[in-house]
Write a structure and sequence with these properties.
It comes from Actinokineospora cianjurensis. The chain is an alpha+beta fold and 311 residues long. Helices cover 50% and strands 19% of the residues. Helix 2 crosses helix 4, helix 3 crosses helix 4 and helix 7 crosses helix 9. The longest helix has 26 residues. The chain is globular and about 65 Å long.
Length: 311
């Protein structure tokens, strides 16, 4: 589509460019003042985001974010560790896996430089009401989707029926990349991982091994790693209900859509004619996957009912 010079959207693009240009200049000043390579600063920003989102950050994950090979990431992390900004630890659940954690010193340093502009920006936002900020958030989310480097492709996924070993691997993903309430019903809404909630996870999934209670649960595997779970619960001879969760690092990559397509194939083979799902209007990822796979969505207030015919 052609863009006219007078297009209001183009004016916003230029405004975004000016803002990002100024922020990039500030980042360069910060890096130079603290003896950091620009890529080191980018790495710290990604690791800070991971900390805020409670995401388990590994060297491999960081390599993907920075588009660097493993040797370059190792050298980069070595520099950040020596500077006291990052700490390496072994994953308690998988001693072969190394986790990267931002140290408080890096947070203090960043706040000393960026604290003023962050405060000013938050103060400026108080000039807008909640509805206006919600529109701004939706706009910025959409712009981020357009420019981000890791746009969804067509990932290959495999659905792995749950057993004891797979459930333990899936539990590790859940603990590091999701909340208990994201992945299972919890007692009294418990939303912190403890030995009790981990055992509850095991028991909940064991209760559905081999299609027990009419529900088949699959671990979603992509590129050799488990990323989440999808289920198919038989409602009637012709209808099945589905639901899914993905770890934070797997979201926004098309894995959910690919997993849903794979489940449709499983359902068709089992003689199911319709898949249904219940979600909310705020769950844009689920709605996008359902639409892409051909579901019809019916809204009831904030609740959304999806019906996906098969065949």
């Amino acid at each position: 589509m052609d863009v006219d010079d007078g297009d209001a959207g183009l004016e916003l693009v230029h405004l975004l460019r000016r803002i990002t240009g100024r922020l990039d200049l500030m980042a360069a000043e910060f890096a130079a003042a603290n003896g950091l390579h620009p890529t080191d600063l980018r790495a710290l920003i990604h690791l800070l985001d991971a900390r805020r989102e409670e995401l388990a950050a590994t060297p491999g994950w960081l390599s993907g974010k920075l588009a660097l090979n493993s040797a370059s990431v190792t050298a980069l992390v070595d520099r950040l560790v020596r500077a006291g900004y990052v700490r390496r630890t072994r994953d308690n659940r998988d001693r072969r896996r190394v986790l990267l954690t931002v140290q408080d010193e890096a947070i203090r340093l960043g706040w000393s430089f960026y604290g003023g502009i962050i405060t000013d920006m938050v103060d400026a936002m108080r000039e807008f009401d909640g509805a206006e900020l919600a529109v701004a958030r939706r706009f910025l989310d959409r712009m981020h989707d357009v420019v981000r480097a890791d746009k969804p492709t067509n990932p290959v996924v495999r659905l792995v029926p749950l057993d004891e070993a797979t459930t333990e691997r899936l539990l590790s993903v859940a603990v590091h990349e999701a909340r208990p309430t994201d992945v299972m019903p919890t007692q009294d809404g418990a939303d912190t991982w403890t030995p009790a909630t981990e055992n509850a996870f095991r028991e909940f999934h064991r209760s559905h091994f081999h299609g027990a209670n009419g529900t088949v649960m699959y671990a979603v595997e992509s590129e050799g790693s488990l990323t989440g779970m999808i289920r198919m619960a038989r409602v009637s001879q012709d209808e099945a209900e589905t639901g899914m969760w993905l770890g934070r690092s797997a979201r926004g990559k098309g894995i959910g859509t690919a997993a849903l397509r794979a489940l449709v194939a499983e359902a068709a083979a089992a003689g199911v004619r319709t898949i249904v799902a219940d979600t909310t209007s705020g769950n844009s990822a689920a709605l996008g996957a359902l639409r892409t796979c051909g579901a019809t969505l019916t809204h009831h207030g904030d609740d959304v009912r999806a019906e996906l015919p098969i065949g």
